[in-house]
Amino acid sequence: MTFATLRALQAIIGDAIDEIYAAYASESRHHLGSPSPPPSLSSSSSSTPPPSPPKRHRSPTPPLLSLSHSNHTFSSASHYSSSNAPIPPLDRDALLDFPDLDLPGDPSSPAEQLTSRPDVANAISRIVAAGSQLAVIVRSPFLTICDATMIYHLPSCLRFFEASHIPELLSAAGPSGLSVIEISASVGVDSVKISHVLRLLATHHIIREREPDIFALNRVSALLDSGRSFTECRSAPVKKYDSEYGGVAALAALNTDELFKASAYFTDALLPSPDMNSKRTNLTVIAPTAFNLSQRTTLPYWTWLETPENGSRLARFARAMAGTEGWMGASDAELSFPFPELAEDALIVDVGGGIGSTTLRLAERFPKLRFIIQDREPVCKLGEDAWDIHSPALITSGRVRFQVHDFFKPQPMHDGDIRPAVFLLRVVCHDWPDVLARRILLQLRRAADEGTTHKKPTYLVIGDHLLPYACTSAKVSELRIQEGMEGLRGACWPLLANLGVASANAYWMDMTMQVTLGGQERTLPELRSLAESAGWRLIRVARAEGSLFAHVVAEPGPLPSGSALGTPFPSVATLAVEDGEEEIPPAIRERGATPVMDMLGAARTLLRARAGGKKGSTGDNAWVRWMQRKVYADENDARRASTGVAAEKNVPTPSQGVQGRGLLKKVSQYFGEGG
């Protein structure tokens, strides 16, 4: 049967290429029939404006319950056999060609814009899925394992490539490229080392080696060019991300820096070695994320970003979020239902909205709506500065404003207690494990208008990757009856229902959330369960063709019983300081060990705090030992001595004791105030 599988994959690739060719040929005829044919892809003339982008064909947003039936059915390979009438070939010079991998792309060109048209994007995904699956089938399993276990060198080399500003150097050099000797003279790194780094990238088609030791940008690496000069980047590295094209470079830098380092500690966080749980280095109070282990810090990621020494990383993170637009596709501009249907002056609250990249697109698309962008104070300050430069009119008119808010706390009053028409949570829920994401959703549910016969309710729009299962089956009926196995359009046998490697970005992001924040991307059943646990009922799901990034719309449903918000940990609810407990309840103290849920969703044990919380008690020592592991304490002291910056907050010194109640307070603060 293996040869049958190989032939089926070969047919999928061939049919998909035929579909792409037909789309480009059809578009070529469209342009040939217009009075002003577009310039060729290689044209560099600035006097001839590019034509308008092709009109997008968007299918209506399907209801949630029909997601597994209409556009997302699991098809047979024969469905994609070339049944359409062949299009007569065009003259080679007249044909609009697919973008060339060896040349930097022009995002405004018809050839590049056509790649995101739904039918073309779907065909591209099938080619990637089938090609990667075919390669794994025929290749030696040992070599596949070697590639998988040594792929860590790729982000390492990419980080050097971006941080040394080589993309800007090569951009200025043009198609002829530069020799490693010339690159070395500018960067200040040995030319042999540079050549080996760039050759690994060229081997993965990220850059082009034109001749031995002469490299040039291609369609992939050109995305890392910020548009600034090499000199500007060297003099102000962080500011290069503020440029119009700096978002993707910021995203690459973020992914290959602290996120890459955190991933290396994933197993250590899930399966701590015996010595980590020894009496000397007790970790039973809370389990840190892989990020905490990699950075030797007890601070949650968001708090760590806001420390003075990480100011540049915070600014980079904000710009990196703008660089994620490539995940969403064209439909993200209006985020689907319900925005086109909202009344004039309706209020949209962008919860955890960062510097407001999503709000900016919505405000431009819907000029009669009003917006509030909520986030932590340092992020709001960055956003206000950015809007003052790029869109000051929207701020001065009052249509858009920033609001400092912790989304774990109740929503503030809005304009005389007018309830928002929409709460927007874009790339927020995936930051948190279910127990904390539920807490965010509960706060929004309590502030939502349930609506009436004549009045629309407050809608919740969640923007995150929605993960299908990675199953494969030739029987359509088996897939239709199981929610979460809805697959993607074109996922025909023998492809995986999630289109395999073609959808890998979403699964990479899932692991990124786990190692950094203890969060996760979710399957449809997981997201439905989470929403319903917080009183929201899912009604629609929409995602662009070729992308797993989804916009899930919910409306208020019944509030579940027992939806107290005092603490993110139900098992220690009576211990939360913010609930007003003045001391540890005797019943809890007598139980000895209390189970809690850590940021990775695993059960841990909270050690017993002795009566009176005396210094030197079990709970005190457990917390202090974990917080002051030798390597962390040494590094913190060294940083303080060398920079004069005070030690991180909440790190007790050896001379300080932590009362039993203080132990619980720190657990609550560590998880409950990181929003």
Automatic annotation (TrEMBL):
Gene Ontology annotations of biological process type: methylation
Region Disordered, annotated ranges:
27-68, 98-117
Q: Which GO terms describe its molecular function?
A: O-methyltransferase activity
One family name in Pfam for this protein? Methyltransf_2
Please give the InterPro entries that the UniProt record associates with this protein. COMT-like, COMT_C, SAM-dependent_MTases_sf, WH-like_DNA-bd_sf, WH_DNA-bd_sf
Using the record's annotation, list all stretches that form the O-methyltransferase C-terminal domain. Answer: 346-451
Q: Where, if anywhere, are coiled coils annotated?
A: none
Instruction: For this UniProt record, give its keywords in alphabetical order, as a comma-separated list.
Output: Methyltransferase, S-adenosyl-L-methionine, Transferase
Instruction: Write the protein's name.
Output: S-adenosyl-L-methionine-dependent methyltransferase
- Tell me the classification of the organism that encodes this protein: Eukaryota, Fungi, Dikarya, Basidiomycota, Agaricomycotina
